[in-house]
């Protein structure tokens, strides 16, 4: 009986050790990301477009293995690096590098709305709004000192312009999130 009890206690202790190691491994896979405020370089900057992008831009990175650097810290690092957002262009590599260093981020991400085209068609009894969105991303990996530049496209059609725009932007952003999370 003592042998069985001893083996049971030994088994429970070894399982506790295994779970503790697994928990530590999961914590070590936590990535910190600095998200540079998006740039809307298109003429279509209605309030709802800004709201859609702001909400979805940050929301896409709210997953368990990602910790987002606070916006204030990112802005402070951008200011320290001398970045001027009024030029409506994503920063160059040296700014991404400085932001990563100042915020201690593993990755730095920037996004720009490059194109947002809406075309309306009125047919006999219906209206259709077609929207195409093109987003440009820059994704900096601090450990490799590498900046990846890519773009995504989204399209949608709906009777309502707001819905069409929302869906096209969402479509393009989902593709961007997938490319970024695949790179982590």
Task: Explain what the structure shows.
The protein is an alpha/beta fold. It has helices at residues 2-28, 47-59, 71-81, 93-103, 161-183; strands spanning 31-35, 39-40, 66-68, 107-122, 127-141, 146-158. The protein has a single domain, classed as Rossmann fold, CATH 3.40.50. Strands 1, 2, 3, 4, 5 and 6 form a six-stranded mixed β-sheet that branches. β4 and β5 form a beta hairpin. Mean pLDDT is 80; it is low at 1-27.
Q: Topology, pairings included?
A:
Elements: H1 2-28, E1 31-35, E2 39-40, H2 47-59, E3 66-68, H3 71-81, H4 93-103, E4 107-122, E5 127-141, E6 146-158, H5 161-183
Helix pairs in contact: 2-5, 3-4
Protein name: Lipoprotein
Signal peptide: 1-20
Keywords: Signal
Overall mean confidence score, pLDDT: 80
**Number of helical regions:** 5
What is the N-to-C order of secondary-structure elements (H for helix, E for strand)? HEEHEHHEEEH
CATH topological fold name: Rossmann fold
In CATH, what is the homologous superfamily? Answer: ABC-type transport auxiliary lipoprotein component
What is the percent of helical residues?
A: 40-55%
| Residues in β-strands, percent | 25-35%
Tell me, briefly, the overall form.
elongated
Signal peptide: 1-20
Protein name: Lipoprotein
Organism: Propionispira arboris
Keywords: Signal
């Amino acid at each position: 009986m003592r042998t069985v009890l001893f083996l049971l206690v030994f088994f429970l202790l070894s399982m506790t050790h295994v779970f503790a190691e697994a928990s530590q491994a999961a914590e070590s896979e936590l990535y910190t990301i600095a998200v540079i405020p998006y740039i809307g370089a298109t003429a279509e900057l209605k309030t709802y477009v800004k709201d859609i992008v702001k909400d979805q831009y940050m929301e896409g990175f709210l997953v368990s293995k990602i910790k987002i650097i606070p916006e204030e810290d990112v802005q402070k690092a951008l200011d320290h690096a001398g970045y001027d957002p009024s030029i409506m262009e994503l920063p160059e590599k040296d700014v991404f590098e400085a932001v990563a260093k100042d915020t201690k981020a593993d990755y730095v991400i920037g996004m720009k709305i490059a194109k947002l085209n809406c075309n309306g068609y009125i047919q006999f009894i219906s209206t259709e709004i077609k929207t195409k969105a093109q987003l440009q991303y820059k994704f900096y990996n601090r450990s490799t000192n590498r900046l990846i530049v890519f773009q995504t496209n989204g399209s949608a059609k709906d009777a309502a312009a707001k819905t069409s725009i929302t869906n096209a932007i969402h479509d393009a952003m989902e593709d961007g999130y997938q490319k970024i999370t695949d790179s982590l």
